[in-house]
Write a sequence for this structure.
């Protein structure tokens, strides 16, 4: 943490900001640093650490998108930091050995020419020295760092003694300000109350290295670089013997020690040096020292150490990124290591990027960018710890417990506020770059096995909200369809899965499947290996559905299980959807689905081939109708869908031909013409489902057509007006078409009934929705005539909605019931038979 700021910029900070503002800067900076250190320690002590430090922590906590994008940002922060310290070292070298401005030939030790290109050359040479140390390996760097620590500690002691031992003196200042040479005298007054008073307040002036006017934010940006070394230990986490033990102790003690030293030095400088000396001579500590060469050695040692620390940190992050394969071939080169495991190519690549940053030329120029990068990384470390804490995952058990979510939140807020105060442009650009990286990794990076904190957070919130979802507070105004679609084999049901996805209207959608096996006779659960295939199918078809698989001795038992157990809390299926039971051979619609034909992807594995046309079915007609009866007993609505394989939704709904595609709605029980009413619960549910389909994005071009069956002498226009008023009250836009059906009704069995087309008596309400008890009296001739009447209403629609009567109470009539449904829907194209038991419409707000 002690680097160029301690020896070359602390006087600059105090000189421009004054003692009060300098202490405030230290307090703000160390508040941010302190909060971040607590988060670092918490994550570092929650499991094994590997190479990459902060990147490793964030990627394993927040997942690959956040980890990869922050890894790149942290790599750039370390690269720019390394360049900053090298430029600081160049400044110190030129200050000691450079030819004074105005002289062409050097004298004594002042032999180094000064210009932009010469200083770039010196920086390149010094960076090459850092490269050699880093290439040899982290072990020699660790030994060198300890030696440097001893040197810096000795120099610090010398400086502290110098403030007390040095007598007052004048310091001549040479200022190469904008290529002109001026001389001015600064003063070391010794301890003086007058000097202290003079330096208490701020006195911002022009920075003589860049010629720019300073302010609180620009000075803070430079000062903050003296605190950014807190990640040095974390970056070497792969090289430490016990990172979980060493990182918290080393980092916290370093933070406390440096904070005390910075505050003490700031006070001593303000009490002994006048503002001119502080502002105009960044190397004044050497001038007032009792042993100046030692200060020079300290400056070189501390700055070289910080430069190497950042270079090693950057290379380790790059190596970790390459090893995780988040960026594919782009970073493949950085994976190469030496025989001892040192990531040689990552070091060389990092060195190249630092060399590019050196072209910026001046330390204060890049200080703001470096600070912004580091603040962004620190904010994300805090975010990672906050997310782990909020997710309440049982496995988040750090041995370091001195943190709460409050400290994480304060750290994030502090980082963000200071980032925008220092440089709104740099902060916005950094966040924009971070967002681009996030999106790129989200869509392009391979899935990882690290675990995603987002999943833990989602689980935590969803559980909380599910508990708040109270079924006792359900209201018809907010009813929505919650579908359970039974699928025997997805290969033959792709279009049905797609269609029901359009029908769900943001409700629950569950794909159910029954496996006919007995767990007692099996060594393990056969459903577990199938889960991945079903989930992949849902992803590929892009439907928002859950999967629910079950084992049962029969399909009917399995459907009962799913109706009882699917869903959770207030999210349970209220509608059962079945494919129609007929003798048509199943077709593999999955192979022709756009999700697979457009991307040339292989079909999901794990689904068996379709049943051959001659092969026996898994359930009998009686069992199929029994499933419908079971669902109605459980107060579930039922949809039976037929001929959907002939629905080409893309072509139907996007064709530009006029008229637009239509949805035909028949809200009358065609098997009970004596109860021809359109305002019972079932008719209104049927109307609602057609309206819901029409509201789906893909179906908005379609037009609803409502067919009103009328008999002669039944005042058809009065019925039409009544129906139109109902549609208006329900806010449903539909075209009403009157259909005379005297010829069809005449074929129906003769039975006493109320006024034609009028409301049935109240006591007949329940009977009206049922299949006729005396089934034999509904002749095939009548059903075929009703089918022909529906078929003749042109032009052919995209889909038809018909009324599904309740199955008869006598189970012996189930096959006949199914046969008459088959006759009614024969050759109609895509058809949905609907029976509703839920009140789903409301005329109120």
């Amino acid at each position: 943490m002690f680097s160029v700021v301690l020896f070359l910029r602390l006087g600059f900070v105090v000189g421009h900001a004054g003692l009060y503002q300098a202490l405030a800067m230290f307090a703000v900076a160390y508040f941010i640093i302190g909060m971040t250190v607590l988060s670092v320690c918490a994550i570092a002590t929650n499991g094994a650490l590997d190479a990459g430090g902060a990147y490793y922590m964030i990627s394993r906590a927040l997942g690959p998108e956040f980890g990869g994008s922050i890894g790149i940002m942290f790599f750039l922060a370390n690269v720019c930091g390394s360049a900053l310290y090298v430029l600081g070292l160049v400044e110190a070298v030129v200050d000691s050995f450079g030819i004074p401005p105005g002289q062409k030939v050097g004298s004594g030790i002042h032999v180094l020419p000064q210009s932009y290109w010469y200083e770039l050359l010196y920086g390149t040479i010094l960076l090459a020295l850092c490269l050699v140390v880093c290439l040899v390996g982290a072990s020699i760097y660790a030994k060198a760092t300890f030696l440097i620590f001893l040197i810096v500690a000795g120099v610090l002691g010398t400086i502290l003694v110098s403030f007390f031992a040095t007598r007052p003196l004048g310091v001549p200042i040479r200022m190469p300000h904008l290529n002109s040479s001026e001389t001015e005298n600064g003063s070391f007054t010794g301890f003086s109350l007058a000097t202290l008073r003079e330096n208490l307040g701020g006195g911002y002036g022009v920075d003589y290295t860049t010629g720019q006017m300073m302010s609180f934010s620009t000075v803070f940006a430079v000062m903050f670089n003296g605190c950014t070394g807190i990640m040095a230990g974390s970056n070497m986490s792969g090289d430490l013997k016990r990172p979980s033990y060493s990182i918290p102790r080393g980092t916290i003690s370093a933070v406390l020690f440096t904070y005390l030293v910075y505050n003490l030095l700031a006070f001593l400088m303000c009490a002994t040096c006048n503002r001119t000396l502080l502002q105009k001579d960044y190397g004044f500590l050497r001038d007032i020292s009792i042993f100046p060469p030692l200060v020079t050695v300290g400056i070189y040692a501390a700055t070289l150490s910080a430069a190497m620390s950042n270079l090693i940190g950057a290379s380790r992050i790059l190596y970790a990124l390459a090893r995780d394969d988040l960026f594919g071939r782009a970073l493949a080169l950085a994976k190469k290591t030496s025989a001892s495991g040192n990531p040689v190519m990552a070091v060389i690549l990092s060195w190249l990027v630092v060399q590019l940053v050196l072209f910026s030329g001046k330390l204060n120029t890049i200080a703001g960018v470096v600070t912004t990068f580091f603040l962004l990384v620190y904010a994300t470390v805090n975010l990672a710890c906050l997310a782990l804490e909020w997710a309440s995952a049982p496995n988040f058990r750090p041995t370091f417990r001195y943190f709460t979510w409050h400290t994480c939140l304060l750290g994030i807020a502090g980082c963000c506020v200071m980032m925008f105060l220092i440089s709104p442009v740099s902060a916005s650009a950094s966040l924009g770059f971070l967002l681009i990286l996030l999106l790129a990794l989200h869509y392009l990076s391979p899935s990882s096995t690290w675990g995603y904190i987002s999943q833990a957070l989602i689980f935590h919130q969803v559980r909380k909200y599910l508990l708040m979802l109270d079924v006792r507070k359900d209201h018809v105004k907010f009813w929505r369809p919650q579908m359970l679609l039974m699928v025997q084999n997805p290969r033959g049901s792709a279009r049905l899965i797609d269609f029901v996805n359009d029908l769900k209207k943001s409700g629950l959608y569950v794909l159910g499947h029954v496996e006919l096996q007995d767990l007692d006779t099996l060594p393990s659960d056969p459903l577990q290996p199938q889960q991945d295939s079903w989930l992949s199918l849902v992803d590929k078809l892009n439907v928002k559905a859950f999967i629910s698989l079950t084992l049962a001795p029969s399909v009917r038992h399995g459907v009962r299980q799913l109706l009882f157990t699917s869903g959770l809390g207030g999210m349970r299926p209220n509608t059962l959807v079945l494919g129609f039971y007929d003798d048509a051979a199943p077709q593999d619609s999955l192979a022709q689905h756009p999700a697979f034909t457009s991307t040339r992807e292989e079909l999901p594995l794990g689904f068996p081939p379709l049943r051959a046309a001659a092969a026996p079915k898994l359930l009998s007609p009686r069992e199929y109708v029994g499933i419908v009866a079971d669902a109605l007993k459980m107060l579930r609505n039922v949809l039976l869908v037929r001929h959907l394989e002939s629905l080409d939704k893309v072509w139907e709904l996007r064709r530009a031909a006029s008229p637009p595609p239509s949805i035909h709605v028949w809200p009358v029980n065609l098997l009970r013409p004596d109860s021809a009413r359109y305002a019972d619960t079932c008719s209104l549910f049927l109307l609602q489902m057609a309206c819901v389909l029409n509201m789906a994005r893909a179906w908005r071009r379609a037009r609803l057509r409502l067919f009103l069956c009328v008999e002669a002498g039944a005042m058809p226009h009065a019925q039409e007006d009544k129906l139109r008023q109902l549609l208006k009250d329900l806010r449903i836009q539909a075209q009403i078409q009157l259909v005379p059906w005297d010829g069809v009704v005449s074929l129906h069995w003769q039975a006493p009934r109320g006024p034609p087309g009028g409301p049935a008596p109240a006591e007949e309400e329940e009977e009206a929705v049922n299949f006729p008890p005396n089934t034999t009296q509904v002749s095939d001739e009548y059903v075929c005539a009703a089918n022909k009447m529906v078929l003749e209403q042109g032009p052919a629609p995209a889909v038809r909605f018909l009324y599904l009567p309740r199955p008869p109470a006598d189970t012996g009539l189930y096959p006949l019931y199914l046969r008459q449904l088959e006759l009614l829907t024969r050759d109609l194209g895509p058809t949905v038979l609907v029976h509703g038991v839920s009140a789903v419409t409301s005329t109120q707000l």
Q: What stands out?
A: Residues 240 and 318 are 18 Å apart (CA to CA). Residues 4-44 form the longest helix (41 residues).
